Amino acid sequence: MFTRQVYFSYIYAMYIVDKKSDQKDQIEIVPIELDDLKRVPKSKFWFDWREEINYDVFKLQISGTDEILGLISMETHHQDSRLEIRLLAASKENRGKNKKFDRLVGNLIAFACIRSITMFGSLACVSLVPKTRLIDHYREEYSMIEAGKSLFLDGKELLEIIKRFGDE
Amino acid sequence: MVRSYWKLLKDLGMSKKGFNNEIEEYKELIDSRLTSEKEKEQERNALIAARQKRFRERPESEKLVGNLLQIKYQIENYLNNPAYSNKNSFPKFLSMYVDTLYKKRKDFASDLDINPIILSQIINNHRDPKEEFLIRLIVHSQAVFKSFGHFDRDLWPKLYYQDKMCEFLTTSEKRRKIEERHVNNKVVDI
Fold first, then answer.
1. Cβ proximity of B162 and B93 under 8 Å
2. Which listed site, A49, A109, A133, B4, has its alpha carbon 20 to 30 Å from B153?
3. Looking at beta carbons, which residues of chain A come within 8 Å of B67?
4. A147, β-bridge pairs
5. Do A113 and A124 touch, CB atoms closer than 8 A?
6. Phi, psi (rounded to 5 degrees) for A94
7. Hey, is the C-beta of B17 within 8 angstroms of any chain A C-beta?
8. What is the pLDDT along chain A (168 residues), one digit of tens a residue?
């Protein structure tokens, strides 16, 4: 197992939407396994995910299938009651205007929010450092708040993301 | 002289369409890794300051929702990871639930129309909850979560019976040697 905390390997009632057919597919977000590293090359998932071996890495796939559609790597800052999204990537065919599925990134961010709530309750926080030109996108799409170069979610905004993408 | 933004892109060999496509693609990619320790510390301090201010202004009701969801997700995690089983999970999560919602446990007992002494015994694992207690607890939890989410009716019973299963597996292993003497396998001869 790649992830140190098996504690968080559970499945939520989340879904993605096929842009062509509008069909909803239930998804699962589970810890990545060592064998998966062969299936997530940089050409498809942009980053070298082998470098994330010391962090908590999860994969998103349609329930009952094994095709990886998205990946997220997170670091927990216990002292700050904060979970940081280090890396996040949708697969190549799910990026840009012609992507196959919608809601991939939202689901992965919501997963981070649920995980943060599970650990920190009312103090939960999820942060990331975006590309400067995408700050407005994350603020508008996910109601993220600016602090320095970072964006974060906590309180009402974090609960809203869980409600919108998660199972609440 | 201020050059047009798109002119600049053109000079860099990038079309307006190409630039927009690149932005679209980056929306599905996040790289937060910072290499400089100084920069990491600056970001940490900025986040702490912004969050402290927001937390002070946050309504108590929002904090309560966060704490209740924490209990629910922890129960779900626990049930989905039996490797972490322990025989006292039901009383542990029950006390978390009660103490999150009530200042005094006797008020919860009153809301469930049960004797506070019985509640105390259940929480301290000195008494098993009766079926009626479990049903009232489910009704209570579903009513509490209704305004902001949902609470599966099988969570509390699953938790309780997982404790029982765990307790059985622990004690039965110890008693196995004694009980084995009572079992004959005369019929089965494979």
1. no
2. A109
3. 121-122
4. A150
5. yes
6. -115, 25
7. no
8. 333 343 444 445 799 999 999 999 999 999 999 999 889 999 999 999 999 989 999 999 999 999 999 999 999 999 999 999 999 999 999 998 889 999 999 999 999 999 999 999 999 999 999 988 899 999 999 999 999 999 999 999 999 999 999 865
Instruction: Determine the Cα–Cα distance for residues B116 and B133; give it in Å rounded to an integer.
Output: 12
Closest CA to A150 of B57, B41, B24, B53: B41
Contact B50, A147 (CB under 8 A): yes
Ordered alpha helix ranges (H), A67-146: 104-120, 135-142
Alpha-carbon gap, residue B155 to B129, rounded angstroms:
15
> What ipTM was reported for this prediction?
0.88
Verify whether the Cβ–Cβ distance B66 to A117 is below 8 Å: yes
8 Å CB contact of A122 and B63: yes
Q: How far apart are CA B151 and CA B153, in angstroms?
A: 6
Select from B17, B20, B31, B155 the residue whose CB has the most chain A CBs within 10 Å, as the one to mutate to test that interface: B31
A162 neighbors B69 (Cβ within 8 angstroms): yes
A70 Cβ contact list (under 8 Å, min separation 6): A59, A60, A88, A89, A90, A91, A94, A104, A105, A107, A108
Quick one: angle between helices B89-101 and B155-180, nearest 10?
Answer: 160
Q: With an 8 Å Cβ cutoff, is B33 touching chain A?
A: yes
DSSP-derived letter for residue B12 is: T
